[in-house]
Structure formats: structure tokens, C-alpha cells
Amino acid sequence: MAQPMCAFAWASGGGDERSRHNVSMNVTVSVALISAGAALFGSALTALSSAWLTSRQLRHQRGLAQDQRLHDRSSQQRQHRREAYEQFLAQVDAAYRLLDQAWQSAPFTDHPNWEAGFVARRVMDETYVRVQLEGPAEVAASAAAVVKSVGKEFRLVERTAVEHESGDLSPAELDSVGRSAAVKARFATTEDFILVARSTLNGELGG
Q1: DSSP-derived secondary structure letter, 107
Q2: What letters, b where the CB count within 10 A reaches 16 and e where it falls short, cover 5-38?
Q3: Which residues contact 186 (CB under 8 A, 6 or more apart)?
Q4: Which of 175, 157, 176, 179 is nearest to 109 (CA)?
Q5: Is the dihedral of CA 193, 143, 137, 86 positive or negative?
Q6: Long-range contacts for 131-134 (Cβ within 8 Å, ≥24 apart)?
Q7: With contact defined as beta carbons under 8 Å apart, do 94 and 116 qualify?
Q8: Which of 160, 193, 170, 165 is nearest to 90 (CA)?
Q9: SS3 of 76, please?
Q10: Distances, alpha carbon 13 to alpha carbons 9, 24, 98, in Å
């Protein structure tokens, strides 16, 4: 009877050993799974953080690039406008010089630059067109006033000379009042253009 009991005891002891072994393996596997899961979660979190930072940096860089493009475009536009305004004023000044000569010529019809006035006005009109293209509207309107004033003065001095072409007096002597008014109009329209153009180039006017 003792042997069966020993056999049973041995069998029972072997089962406990296997059970403890299985539990130990289950714990090991669980720990390994938890560790692997934690590592994967950490990797995923790191990847997400890295992706977020990269996206933020890219957005910042795109913003800087866009700001730079806007700045470059604004600077280029300002430079083009400055050139257009300067060329226009140069041709206006050339027209004023011819007008001064015409007013003082006696008789006007013998003035050697009789045709030069038409050429000067044509060139001035060409530079005025560029001012219109470059804008803004406020500057173009001021330039139009200058062109209108110059044309009006040319017609005035021509009419004065033609009406008295047989005399020896200059148009300025024949119509001093008209000349004075014309010169005042020069200063008024030119000064207005310069003020508006300067405000535009300084960024005080939009457009």
C-alpha cells in the first residue's frame, strides 16, 4: 500500500512543479508584452512629437518664405514706381524749360525750338503712361493734372505769340498775367504730384 501512495505523492509533486513553471512563463510573457507595448508606445509618441515639430518648423519656414517674397515684391514695385516718377518729372522739367524759352522768345515764331515743344509733350505723355501703369490711382491723378497744366500753358504761349506774331515783344511781355497764372499752376500741380509720389514710396498710400 505504501508504494501507490508514494507514486501518488510523486505524481502530485510533479503537477505542482509544472504549474509553477507555467505561471512563471506566463508572468515572463506578460512582462515581455508589457515592455514591448511600452516601447512601441514610446516610439510612437516620439514619432508623433517629431512629426509635429517638423510640421511646425515647415509651417514657420513657409511663413518666412512668403514674408520674404512679399517684401521682395513690395521692394521691386517701389523701385519701379520710383523710376517711373523720376522719369516723368524729368520730362516735365524739360517741358518747363522749353516753355520758359518760348515765353521769352521775341518773336516766338522765330524760336529755333518751335517743334521741340511738341516732342517734349509727346515724351512726357509716354512717361505719364508708365506712371498710370505703376500707380497707384492717387499718383496717376496728380500726374494727369501736371500733364493738363503743361498742355494748357503750351497752348497759351502759342496763342499769345500767334495773335501778335508781327510784333517784337515776347509772349511774356504780351501776357504777363497769363504767364504768371501758368507758372503758379506749374508749381501747384508739380508740388502735389511730388507729395503724393513721396507718400506712396514711403508706404503712406496703398495701392
Answers
A1: S
A2: eeeeeeeeeeeeeeeeeeeeeeeeeeeeeeeeee
A3: 96, 149, 150, 153
A4: 157
A5: negative
A6: 131/84, 131/85, 131/88, 133/84, 134/77, 134/80, 134/81, 134/84, 134/85
A7: no
A8: 193
A9: helix
A10: 6, 17, 127
The one-character DSSP state at 108 is G
Give the residue carrying C-alpha cell 509651417. Answer: 59
Q: Residue 12 has which C-alpha cell?
A: 502530485
Query: pLDDT tens across 33-68, in order?
Result: 566 566 666 676 777 777 777 777 777 677 666 666
Nearest to 134, CA basis, from 85, 86, 89, 92: 85
Q: Which residues of the chain have pLDDT under 50?
A: 1-2, 5-12
Of 95, 85, 91, the residue nearest 154 (C-alpha): 95
What is the spatial distance between Cα 19 and Cα 173, in angstroms, rounded to a whole number?
A: 131
Give pTM, 2 decimals: 0.66
Residue 166, φ and ψ in degrees, nearest 5: -90, -5
CA distances, 159 to each of 22, 27, 127, 181 (Å): 121, 114, 26, 15
